[in-house]
Amino acid sequence: MERLPGDPARPDVSLRRTLVVLRHGRTAWNDAGRAQGHADIELDELGHAQASAAATELALLAPTRIWCSDLSRARQTAAPLAGATGLVPEVVPALREYDVGKRTGMTFDEFAAAFPDEYAAWLAGDESLTVPGAETTSDVRARIVPAMRACLDALGAGETGIVVTHGAALRVGVAGLLAWPDEIDETLAGMDNCGWLRLREHTRFGHLQLASYNQCAAT
């Protein structure tokens, strides 16, 4: 169809970049409801199955780069994806989960019993009182948003990259990349183990859009 004089050129959707953010597969601590933080917990049997199923689907997106946290559960989730694509995952420590300090390994009930004041502050979203050694959301935002932005910036026109990271930290990173107000990341439901989301560039304005959320492969 002939374009009339003065008509703007149609944006080329094939040139937009896409960043897929994948949460790691299940661990025994996930199953037990224990806070993992920086503890280096490996995937359980179901977690490995979830990672394999996700890799089969995500390989169809023809990614050109894969990045992952340095913790075992993220690296093990990235391994089947590497096998399906032939890509070597690039390890980025800044993609780690929140450090939960002395709360590491605790269930919510154990957290409430051991640190009642800190637990009450956590429920209220008050980060002025945290358990010893724990990162605040501001701490996590300061490291994960630049790391995820660097992943996006490393992609060429039309390319797709995959970031393998952790449930709580990814909400903070995604909200930061979308330039949402600080509080709004809590409005995102928690991602399932091996769930993923897609961020893609707007074809006209260049900013990112949340194109899908918590997609999961059948296991």
TrEMBL record:
<dbReference type="InterPro" id="IPR013078">
    <property type="entry name" value="His_Pase_superF_clade-1"/>
</dbReference>
<dbReference type="InterPro" id="IPR029033">
    <property type="entry name" value="His_PPase_superfam"/>
</dbReference>
<protein>
    <submittedName>
        <fullName>Histidine phosphatase family protein</fullName>
    </submittedName>
</protein>
<dbReference type="InterPro" id="IPR050275">
    <property type="entry name" value="PGM_Phosphatase"/>
</dbReference>
<dbReference type="Pfam" id="PF00300">
    <property type="entry name" value="His_Phos_1"/>
</dbReference>
